[in-house]
């Protein structure tokens, strides 16, 4: 789906945000870009989504040489600022915007709005101006507008920040469903507790914008020393079982519960 090689990006003030990143994302994969604040996750996501031109290196999409612009409607990129997706007079129009740009019928756009509004608990907010929404509501509306174009690849920058427990569970369920439908999902986060719920593979970034490790979610999340060296706390469930002296560490709460029941 995405093949990045030698990616590097420096901001105008000379800050190197991403440095020499090689990364291949296969169809249907769920990948987390994990790293501490300032590691370059957001910048990398923008580079992968074709929204920033790299200073060095290149990104290939779908095994072709088409530039990011040409495959824009197949890539759904959620940046950290929900305001970037909410620029119409109402939330409804924001969600309809993508389908309209793709030339879909009004009936199909309406259908997508209704489905996404129900999923994200936005029905009562559809006719409001987006700036009158709370931070978490804006994030949910932004995610709905990204999903409205039915992308093949989703690139999500900290999608759960500001989102409460119920809506978090709803969004995680939806990501599971999209993944089961074959959508490729890349999620950036500094939150090790979230990773096992959204990814099967992890790309761990260090503070210098370089990849420190890649591996299965289990491999990366149970290597507590390496996580700490990268500036991250291990997931709570991993830390708990590690400190309690367990050998084989669970990475999800459900797995931990199962383990304890068997004891
Ligand atoms: N517009 C900018 N101008 C200059 N430096 C920037 C800019 N945006 C980000 N940076 C710097 O680039 C580096 C990577 O930032 P980036 O936002 O990609 O990291 P991140 O891993 O997403 O961080 P966080 O977890 O805090 O969101 C940091 O050192 C940051 O200070």
From TrEMBL:
The GO terms describing molecular function are: ATP binding; ATP hydrolysis activity; ATPase-coupled transmembrane transporter activity
Q: Where is it localised?
A: Cell membrane
Q: Which family does it belong to?
A: Belongs to the ABC transporter superfamily.
Report one GO cellular component.
Answer: ATP-binding cassette (ABC) transporter complex
Q: What does this protein do?
A: Probably part of an ABC transporter complex. Responsible for energy coupling to the transport system.
Q: How does it sit in the membrane?
A: Peripheral membrane protein
Q: Which UniProt keywords apply?
A: ATP-binding, Cell membrane, Membrane, Nucleotide-binding, Translocase, Transport
Domain ABC transporter intervals:
2-233
Q: Which domain of life is it from?
A: Archaea
One of this protein's Pfam families, by short name? ABC_tran
What name does UniProt use for this protein? ABC transporter related
